[in-house]
Amino acid sequence: QHLFGLPEHASSLQLLTTHGDGSHYRDPYRLYNLDVFEYELDETMALYGEVPLVVSQSEEFGTAGVFWFNPTETFVDVEEVNGDKKELRTHWMSESGVIDIFLLPGSNPQSLYQQYAHLTGRVALPPMFSLGFHQCRWNYKDERDVYNVHGKFEEYDYPYDVLWLDIEHTDGKRYFTWDNKLFPNPVEMQDKLASQGRRMVTIVDPHIKRDNNYYIHKQATSEGLYIKDNTGKKDFDGWCWPGSSSYLDFTSERVRSWWANQFSYKKYKGSTPNLYTWNDMNEPSVFNGPEVSMQKDLLNLDGIEHREWHNLYGLLFQRATSEGLVQRNLPDQNDRPFVLSRSFFASSQKYGAIWTGDNESKWSHLAIAAPMLLSMNVAALSFVGADVGGFFGNTDAELMTRWMQAGAYQPFFRGHAHHDAKRREPWMFGEETLERLRKAAMARYALTPFWYTVFHEASVTGMPVMRAMWMQYPQISQLYSTDDQYLIGSDLLVKPVTAAGVTQSNVLFPTSDNWYDVDTMKQMSSSPSDAAKVTSLSVKSGIDKIPVYQRGGSIISRKLRLRRSTRMMTHDPYTLYIALDKKLCASGSLYMDDEHTFDHERQGMHATANFDMKVDYDDDGSISFIRNVVEFGLGLTSEGSSIVASVDKSMEPSSRMIERIVVMGTPLSPSAVVMDINGKETSLEFEFGSSSNVLIIRKPNLSALENWNISIYFG
Q: Is 358 a residue of the active site?
């Protein structure tokens, strides 16, 4: 009765009917990766990427899915059948290929995504810096412009992690090069930003300028690496940003290996370990081709027509780039890659981030962002985002504020703009708006330990990071069609404001859990009816407020000190936010590693702090507790110190301290709070707000990498 999936479309999360009397759409959902200029909303038209996965959810039958493994152009009709029951049926039509269907029996979201992860792979754990704010524009003009923008972020104490360069940084759209007049000292530029905790990203697209003096084209031609025309005798010649261009055949392992080698520091002159990559135009985009793409009868190096592998091209391009960023590591390096791609297919989650393409600076595009991103997460693409502010057009202060607030709660967080758009860096809207934008960014940075932990969970279990409400509450049918609010992991409920002039928002709260406002820390009112599964509350959401709520029964870690970037936050202490459930219990975890290398996989250099709390009080003065039990990777001793040679001190207990514990929903004031580490007891300072029912334990001097117990006495 309720179907989801089939990204990417600018439409609702729930798949709507395309066939039969009274169908919502006139055309089937089209799956064919295309470069679409100013795409339309509420349509089934094809966009930049696709995953042929449909997931079904119902109270009666639970969760199930079907994966149609076919990368050719595909149409999917959704039709209502069986009369009163209003059941839905899908009809799949692919241009070519074979019928290769995988059935995912579920029968709950956790089981289904575990099955799908076994089939297509799990999301790669991103480096921590990539979870911060990314500042991009087509284009930052030159090194002076880069330094000016970077300096303004410093001046206004606005955190960011990555500054991006679009196509104009190159020498005439020749990728892996720099315009020597505009960017004469790229290494010095990257090193300067890196010294203050920042990275950079440059764009590298798959179309190669046909210039015999360009070393990439010269070598690709001599080694026969390009896609051929329909005769198989000549290299395909299409038109893209550089003008006359040829396209590498990424279906070939030989070509992918060659491409990966181009990212070595010796070959990519001017690149450093602090430079990462953006793959655009990889649908592939061909300006003079049919529908701005390739003719279907072009041939790859194995003589197979383009129609057979069209939707794989962007995935394989991103894969080769990601492998290149790993292979470039020097002997003393072990860094994880970061690659952003516009095009995608099933398993793209293994290779990097995805964004929703060329959106517009309109409220309607802000509103459609959440449904589009949720649809991608249905297909297990977790590291996704929509460009803050919109790519095309100009945004005003209110729209920019709301978009920054929403973007802070989407997995990939980047601001971007077209070269014809007015400058929209955070300080361009005046001091009052700057303060609001900074507040939104600070909320994101405070939550980076939580985001990192949720991404680690996704990398292990396959569960999406940004979850539709039904993923966490599959037995509540009232939530199946909800796509204007969502969950980050299982513990944060987010309701972006997506219209102008809004001061009140309606939020749906599942009543099986209690919920706390993350700003006031007050518990939201419960349902007037115990039988109701969902309660709708009107909440305040003026321009300074995005409604976000922590689930009762959860423990979330934050870092509250304002820093320039995530790199500068590495050794900062944590604050634990504990939200008690209806039984006055809570639990949560904090995943920790060095945040940038593969040591967590290759050497077992990681640990997980498992926190739990229980409040048990009565007239005899029963003891309540908060405790931590640490699960160590094989590369760490039980004391949390490394057993392999490492200069990184981030996994020592002293680097993972807890400076504060905040408990929401505490029923009454304690009489004493006592810490116990290895049998040594110490009384701790605390304060209790009787009106808010919030208990704050200050300066416990505890490490997240050590086992400990805090006893709380009442009466």
A: yes
